[in-house]
Amino acid sequence: MHFCQNTVNHNIFLENMQNDVLSTILNQHDIQVDGSPEKVSAYFEELVFTKSTMKEYLSKDVYGEVIECIELGKKINRDIAGHVASAMRSWAMSHGAKSYTHWFQPLTGATAEKHDSFFTPKSDGQHIEQFTGDALVQQEPDASSFPNGGIRATFEARGYTAWDPSSPAFILELKAGKVLCIPTIFISYTGEALDYKAPLLKSIHFLEKHALPIARMFDRHANRVQPTLGWEQEYFLVDERMYYARPDLVMAGRTLIGSAPAKGQQLDDHYFGSIPERVYSFMVDLEYQAHRLGIPIQTRHNEVAPGQYEFAPMFESVNVAVDHNQLVIDLMDRVASRHKLKVLTHEKPFAGINGSGKHNNWSLGTDTGKNLLSPGSTPKTNLRFLTFFVNVIKAVHEHADVLRASIASAGNDHRLGANEAPPAIISVFIGSHLTGVLDSILERVEKGKKFDEESNANLKLDIHKMIPYVLLDNTDRNRTSPFAFTGNKFEIRAVGSSTNCASPMIVMNTIVGAQLEAFKKDVNALIADGEKRDGAILRVLSRYIEESKAIRFEGDNYTEEWAKEAAKRKLSNVKDSAHALGLFETDKAIKLFTNSGVFSEVELEARQEINYENYNLKLHIEVNVLADMARTMVVPAAIRYQKKIADTLESLEKNGVKSTSYMRKELALIGEHIECLLELTGQLDEVSAKASSKGHARDEARYIAKNIIPYFEKVRGHCDALEARISDAEWPLPKYRDMLFIR
Ligand code: ADP
Ligand code: MG
Description:
- The chain starts with a helix and ends with a helix.
- Helix 15 packs across helix 17, helix 15 packs parallel to helix 19 and helix 23 packs parallel to helix 25.
- It is of the alpha+beta class.
- The N terminus is likely disordered.
- Strands 9, 10, 11, 12, 13, 14, 15, 16 and 17 form a nine-stranded mixed beta sheet that branches. Strands 1, 2, 5, 6, 7 and 8 form a six-stranded mixed beta sheet that branches.
- The protein is about 50% helix and about 10% strand.
């Protein structure tokens, strides 16, 4: 039934848009898919300069040194870098690459590259291909085109990229040729970070510094502790031609007008129960390309909305997982274009339909193969589990505000609190079983009372009984929680689909690092006071459990009661980004980041400016596109329709037809919408013209949130009302039902 409707609409749309949308859509099932008949292990990582590839291309000594540097985070000297560079070049050239690029993640939200050729002309005519250690280690891209929040203006006009050996180099296959990509950080000449990766690496280092001594309390063989990340990327796919027929999708990544299909999300199951052939081809193709790049993704079919899908990989170290997520987003665009599709990574491409998020599953792993958030099978491993588990909860309680700020963006404002994503209130869900465990610890660890050998041993044994070895299946799921423990990791669910995972990861690493630092001090103080170590640990944990009680919530996060209850508990509920970003600017936040060395004050300030500027820029674009579409597409269509009715009325009257009262009403209604739209867009021009005079980017953001954002709903309301009345033939845009049900 829906398909018939679609077909009819497509035909009219086809005529109306004077293009070949329908015929192309119907004739493109023959797009070639690049999937491979081979098993995945045959081509997994074939485009990655892995350790084993490195081993092949380097002498044993050099290889040993490089691995040591990578694994221990030591500095690589120029000599070694030279060997690595030439090994990379030989390997890349054997794959047909002719150039290389430093690949980095500036604060624009996308990735950036600056390509250089291996080819080096020589004056004596003996031209060669080369890649030197210097070129591998450091580059100076034209930094002026990337956001810097004023850092370079005040300090030094240059920025440079520096090799990050902890994330492997890879080959990108672009239409124009193959390129060796070197993951790098991007910093100003004076050393301030201008990207996501530099602070991410610092935060990983900081976390390890404080997590390792704690991990070693329970496992003396552990020499490394690394945070792990498994992300889940949601996205929408739309037909490329429909996309290009929608200025709002092209310019803003989301539809600014458009009325939701009659049944919205509960549309017939068969519509999104099975994946359309064309989408499936895209997925197979993407998965193949991702696997060649060593990204361990597994296709997920559990889309919630029509046209919405998800990819999720196996978890990896946070650093590599962040790179892989950025790479997949990049890859998705390129693979999609081969299938005449467009990927929408915006948090809310369609009003009234589920938005897209990016769950960040976070945990801590040791080089001895232990997941520190996994319940163990002995009293000792369970005490280890409780230690890390309770410290994470305490960290989130202490620093919920910076976590909230790290996921703030113009796009995510549409999701948080919209009854599909968690609210803007950060709380932690741990399930009834673990709630019981924490409660019983609280009950039995008496305040101020030292443990004797016996009570200590008893409690520890008890904990062992209370925490079943396999908790994974025991954790009940609460899909409404922004921060949920899911058996052996915490899942951060409030992250927006277009956010660079590094942003919340930097915060997680830093707050947990700072918390573990405090924990060690607290435990040591009790030990100095004569307490046995395990008793001291339990006593400190019980204090933390008590102190962080307010952050734990097991109920439905979508309800109004929770918002009230949260307010009573003094939990923050900052709903829009223009204000949530401010949570990075508090004294507490500044102290956290500067003490940990993750950000300097200058960096924080610069980043804030960039965040606000990004927000402002996005909203200005949206406002302009919205006003433009209303004036140049919607109003003219409405006027044409209005004229048709008027002409018809005139001729009816001439012919003596009397019963035209409803047509007159319709004519008046269309006229009203047109008037309102013209009035509102005029006001919008005036209000937004004043925005840029607000001085600091923060003030401008707050002005926009208060004065401009309310117009989106108003303008849209009239546009959507008109869309619902004007005939398909007259409507100048692809409608939701066209875009959401690609075949
Ligand atoms: P959901 O139910 O939310 O779809 P799943 O439990 O299927 O989630 O997803 C598991 C996700 O958690 C995967 O992306 C996986 O990579 C990740 N994950 C599993 N173990 C860890 C870990 N130790 N650290 C980080 N992420 C993990
Ligand atoms: Mg999930």
